[in-house]
Design a protein that fits this description.
Layout (H helix, E strand, L loop, with lengths): L2 E5 L4 H12 L3 E6 L24 E5 L5 H11 L3 E4 L6 H4 L3 H21 L7 E7 L22 H20 L3 E6 L2 E2 L8 H13 L6 E3 L5 E2 L2 E2 H12 L6 E4 L5 E2 H10 L3 E6 L6 E7 L11 E5 L17 H7 L7 H15 L7
Helix pairs in contact: 1-7, 2-4, 4-5, 6-8, 6-10
Length: 358
């Protein structure tokens, strides 16, 4: 039985990867931060009581900013594979807490790789860094592949760039199986509600149930290559099964604007949206509502622009070329964007209660 250690196990990717590896017969260990509130909702369906014999999912307290806790856990677990998914993952917020972002996202990867080296696990433990399309930032070419020059435009992207090159450095200097999965945007019903895709599906669900909701957005013209998190964690696992470590772009090869994502989401509920105004004064209005089961009204203002949601340095267009992953990993996405949006919206509709009528 292989042992895998996952940082960020309570996040979107960590939850899907845990389930995937358990189905593969792995013993899965996860690191979670100590908190006064429980934050394990995404993996509660996988949870096993510590008193159960032969557990396959084991959680440990630890922190990416604490090298001692990281090193001691790796020494104790002796994992065959380490997936570094732990990060301060919100790009906009990284501008507000840049030092913490650098500590977790950049130095966190260094701490794990240094532990592998210090513990003499170079020949046993494989390492996969969950890298990001935010490395490309102010893109130098479209689409972006493994050879495209990087130009990060946020503390998040800069910290992830440090982790990316640290992974390559330890691979070349110490002969560690260390690989990067450069994952473009990937979403799911498990996505955090502060991320734009989930923010959209959640707000539209509330409106559909009659809540007095307005969807506030930033740059409607930002273009992203959106895929499903389930497809992307499968790619990370395939990267770890290769004979030699390497770096791979993981993407769908299709780009969509935030505006188009919004239009598609409303359309699933029979709602046609039209926009008026320009810049921060632009609004989205219900042009037609074709489904009487939902509480939309013609002329209803459902979208407004909030300048606070614009980044200090914007990333305008991300579009990945995953040819290398398709050819070498035999990977390709199984989910289409329309199916992804439908899954997210249906999930949010199920958990959104109508407002109290009393």
């Amino acid at each position: 039985m292989k042992k895998a250690l996952i940082t960020g196990i309570t996040g979107q990717d960590g939850s899907y990867l845990s389930e995937f590896l358990l189905n593969k017969g792995y013993e899965v260990h996860g690191i979670k931060r100590r908190s006064s509130l429980l934050n394990t909702e995404r993996i509660d369906h996988l949870y096993q009581d510590p008193h159960e014999p032969n557990r396959n999912l084991i959680l440990h307290y630890g922190d990416m900013t604490d090298s001692m806790s990281i090193t001691s856990l790796i020494q104790k677990i002796q994992p065959d594979e380490i997936y570094n998914l732990g990060a301060m993952s919100h790009v906009k917020v990284s501008f507000e807490i840049p030092e913490y972002t650098a500590n977790v996202n950049g130095l966190g990867a260094l701490r794990i790789l240094e532990a592998i080296k210090l513990l003499g696990l170079q020949k046993k433990t494989r390492f996969c860094q969950a890298s990001t399309s935010e490395l490309y930032g102010k893109v130098q070419e479209v689409p972006q592949n493994e050879d495209t020059c990087f130009y990060p435009r946020s503390p998040y992207g800069v910290a992830k760039l440090f982790a990316y090159w640290t992974t390559i450095n330890y691979r070349e200097a110490y002969d560690i199986f260390a690989a990067n999965g450069i994952m473009f945007n990937h979403e799911s019903p498990q996505r955090g509600e502060t991320f734009v895709t989930r923010k959209i599906t959640k707000a539209v669900s509330k409106m559909a149930m009659g809540h007095p909701e307005t969807l506030y957005l930033g740059n409607l013209e930002a273009k992203r290559d959106w895929g499903h998190a389930k497809d992307y964690i499968r790619a990370l696992w395939l990267i770890m099964q290769q004979e030699k470590p390497d770096d791979y772009v993981i993407a769908t090869g299709i780009t969509t604007t935030v505006r188009e994502f919004v239009i598609k989401t409303f359309a699933l509920l029979g709602v046609e949206i039209e926009f008026s105004g320009t810049g921060i004064n632009e609004i989205g209005i219900v042009r037609k509502a074709n489904n009487n089961n939902y509480k939309f009204e013609q002329g209803q203002v459902v979208i407004k622009i909030d300048p606070d949601y614009f980044r200090p340095a914007e990333v305008d267009e991300l579009l990945g070329d995953a040819r290398k992953a398709r050819e070498q990993l035999k990977w390709q996405p199984e989910y289409l964007l329309d199916d992804l949006i439908k899954e997210m919206l249906e999930s949010d509709l199920k958990t959104t209660m109508p407002p109290d009528i009393h």
